[in-house]
Description:
By secondary structure, this protein is α/β, with parallel strands linked by helices. Helices cover 39% and strands 18% of the residues. It starts with 10 loop residues before the first strand and ends with a helix. The N terminus is likely disordered.
Amino acid sequence: MNQTNNHMGEKVLVLGAGQLGASVLESLVPAVTQRNGSVCVIVSARSWDKQGKLRSRIHQRLADAGAQFIAVDIADSPLETLKAHFHDFDTVINCMGFVAGAGTQIKITRAVLEAGVKRYFPWQFGVNYDVVGKGSGQPVWDEQYDVRALLRQQNTTQWVIVSTGIFTSFLFEPAFDVVNLDKKTINALGGWETQVTVTSPADIGRLTTEIYLHQPRIIDEVVFVAGETTSYAKLADTVERVTQQTFTRSVLTLPDLQEQLRLNPHDPMLRYRVAFARGDGMWWPMSDTWNAQQYLPTQDIAAWLKTNR
Length: 309
């Protein structure tokens, strides 16, 4: 289907231009500008130097491609200020992440709804919070559950949730302590058969743009995407096959992780390990993903590792 006449002239606002936001913008900016629309990006004032130039070469490249960058401190701005910033946009895509602090995602969502934005992609680029519910051990996830409730109890703003699992790169983050390429260790969270879904930020950016553009328009849906769904046992096999090295394998059981968290309740990575060790809501079959159903290829763990190790 030719979609060049769809979404004509829309004004899109993206919140944040970090790892995910930049990936979304790489695909979104040309798609929107080709349809005579515009893309604005909210970033912090620290993104500019004293001469008024964007510090990041990635941000500057996006600006050169047509994105307009504006400075707003989302975390410190009151709801009324955010409403004023959001009011003139047709679609808001939230790529702020959790770094803005507790309560920020609820505040952003309320501001979007009260501003009368037509369509909202909340920061839900993660696990299935409907299944996870509350009390996962990760407090910021409780807020994500509340964001969904807030969106579902209204019918003025259309919303689309893109569930991606975790970023593929996070599996290899030393602080997360699942795969440590330097130490050659692999720790299964919960057990070797526990499963996890991962997607690369580049794929998330591309797929989010495709979902935004899709006709008929996707409205009030949770859309599942994935680069790969795997067990920790298969992950270990993949890592050893790609690196052609032997890794020390261990299991971090849920009871052990819960005890560690009891002793270190403010450790954010421990909270993540506990949540992922539960297993429920952390994965979905590839056959159920939107990208598989649309025959859109994505990068699996092996391909990511070959490119990034």
